[in-house]
Design brief:
about 475 residues, alpha+beta, 5-stranded mixed beta sheet, two-stranded antiparallel sheet, 19 helices, 7 strands, about 50% helix, about 10% strand
Amino acid sequence: REGYLISLEFPDYYAIMTYCDDAAIRQEIYEAYATRASDQGPNAKEFDNSDIMRQILTLRQEKSQLLGFQNFAELSLATKMAESTDDVLNFLNQLTEQSFATAKEEIAELHAFSNTTDQIETLNAWDISYYSEKLRQHKFSISQDELRPYFPLTKVLKGLFTISNTLFDIDIQPIHEFESWHPDVQLFSISRNGQQLAKFYLDLYARKNKRGGAWMDECRIRRRKFDDSIQNPVAYLTCNFTPPLKNQTSLLTHDEVLTLFHEFGHGLHHMLTKIDYASVSGINGVAWDAVELPSQFLENWCWEKSGLDLISGHFKTQECLPESLLENLLAARNFQAGMQMVRQIEFALFDFKLHLEFNENTDIQSLLNQIRDKVSVFKPPALNRFQHSFGHIFSGGYAAGYYSYKWAEVLAADAFSKFEETGILNSITGQEFLHSILEKGGSREAMDLFIEFRGRKPSIDALLKHSGMLE
């Protein structure tokens, strides 16, 4: 056959939605993607999982009541930082109030741009990503490939380790002789004052048969052994960056730099713990809606000039990121931040209300439509069946917990705002974060630890400020 076979895996779908000039192809792919496993679209009813969703929700409700809770949302919160269902709903409603006006302005700007560019009278769902990318290029003239030469992996790692040393007083050194599952893998030790605290593996490059994505996981957990000695933690940090050309270092996009800092933040949470009991050591026992705090927190240094000066340098000339590129990078950071915010709020509210209010009469599609009427600035077509492929809440562990993404963003932004007040590379504030958050693992309530560090409960203001929605 001639032509191309396009799968409905997200990287294929995203590429078509963002870059394909043919609107008819975009529409065809959108309709197939947005109706997966449902009663709509090209495979209508063939793989429809409507009954499976109801079975899952019914069993979750039954489980909750057996355990003494009124609904699955209450059960979910029993081990989370948020204290009540009202806390979660108030949090999401507050974010909606602060971001909805910005999102409306952004969608209006996109309408005007598409009309000026291609005389598009009405934006369809399959036009949003396409014209958003064109508008982003028009406003900021910056691409990830343009940034690559300034982020060679060797420079990024050196800067990351320098930032970690400055903030948390740790020395990170490579270990050259060790057993490994692949030649690309590196091993490092973490020590303080000559005493080894932990080790971590770095497996950073994509290769055949390797699982996609990026993650940090435990190889060993810090714990006190039966002979009273301490087993030091070992982590492995896995990414899927483009492998280097022969005799060169890998060149990273800024998005990949963010990914590396994110996973390293998880790694520090695991490796710098001082808790001796495995069940609450490192990331263990940490509330689900707080476990992303260290990872999202560390990403902030990728947006600060003092941080970028340490992690950037042209792979040939060692020149730091030019001022013009830096300005465009920072300006593009909050592009369509309001639209992204209300989209995440839509997912979070749908998930939470579905598990809070579900009963035998609940119409899942109607509930989603009601939430879209309240928070969405762009309504998808009637055939859209997003919920039928919402794997996060039906098979991915985020049931009644999707709000955690935004909750953790608030924690991370608010924690970082203390460094904005005292100094981006202030070692005293770094030590406070180390002692209050990183060392404590799941040994105390997440809210108590945050208050110990910040001196108060978390506020959404820092996130709104970082998102460009608050002066």
